[in-house]
């Protein structure tokens, strides 16, 4: 057994000591989290930590390569059960789709669309799912971009596509609020590393319109690409 597992268990012991009093009392028998977050399963993105969440029952967290909200089923494409469960069974009313700068899944999908790449079957499946929604975005990219610039614009496009899929689904309750954001740890949007920037609210992508409709978000609304 590698020493790293012992270290991981040590971190858990520290966590348990911090939570040993009454931190779980209100959620012993169920949950009703106000948010479900759908985040890329990238080790650099600390899904709960980025919202400073240390409250059990506050956020239902979903991780998927490319912050993907959909999956392929026997009946066709559908909202992933991981995302849908809290909306249908736990009274959750808000979905936050979290992309991030320099996303490896978006990068791989971009490279596959433009040049073709070889990947194991499981990764290939994920890339093929993302390609269904990203191919048009690759075709619409402005000319003359560096690859990193293209990727970060596609990160936004991917978030938009995930939001759109949720809005298009009859399985998602009509009164669900859906927010798309990008987590920036590469100083792409500002020099304040680690901020989340709002790029889409219920399908609205225009920053001016978002700010007008949601003035409380105004200082956090930014986009690299309005297409």
From TrEMBL:
Entry's cofactor comment: Binds 1 zinc ion per subunit.
Enzyme Commission numbers on file: 4.2.1.1
Lyase in keyword set: yes
Catalytic activity field: hydrogencarbonate + H(+) = CO2 + H2O
Entry cofactors: Zn(2+)
Keywords: Lyase, Metal-binding, Zinc
Ligand binding (Zn(2+)): 40, 100, 103
Keyword Lyase: yes
Similarity remark: Belongs to the beta-class carbonic anhydrase family.
Protein name: carbonic anhydrase
Lineage, opening ranks: Archaea, Methanobacteriati, Methanobacteriota, Stenosarchaea group, Halobacteria
């Amino acid at each position: 057994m590698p020493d790293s597992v012992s270290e991981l268990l040590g971190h858990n012991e520290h966590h348990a000591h911090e939570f040993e009093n009454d931190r779980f009392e209100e959620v012993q028998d169920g949950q009703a989290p106000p948010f479900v977050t759908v985040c890329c399963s990238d080790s650099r993105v600390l899904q709960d930590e980025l919202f400073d969440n240390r409250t059990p029952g506050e956020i239902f967290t979903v991780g998927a390569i490319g912050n993907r909200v959909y999956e392929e089923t026997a009946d066709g494409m559908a909202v992933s059960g991981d995302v849908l469960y809290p909306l249908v069974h736990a009274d959750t009313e808000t979905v936050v789709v979290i992309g991030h700068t320099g996303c490896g899944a978006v990068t791989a999908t971009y490279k596959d669309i433009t040049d073709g790449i070889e990947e194991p079957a499981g990764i290939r499946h994920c890339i093929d799912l993302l390609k269904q929604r990203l191919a048009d975005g690759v075709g619409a990219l402005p000319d003359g971009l560096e690859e990193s610039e293209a990727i970060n614009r596609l990160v936004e496009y991917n978030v938009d596509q995930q939001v759109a899929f949720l809005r298009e689904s009859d399985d998602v309750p009509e009164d669900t609020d859906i927010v798309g954001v990008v987590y920036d740890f590469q100083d792409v949007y500002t020099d304040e590393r680690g901020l989340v920037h709002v790029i889409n609210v219920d399908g609205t992508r225009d920053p001016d319109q978002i700010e007008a409709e949601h003035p409380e978000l105004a200082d956090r609304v930014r986009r690299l690409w309005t297409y």
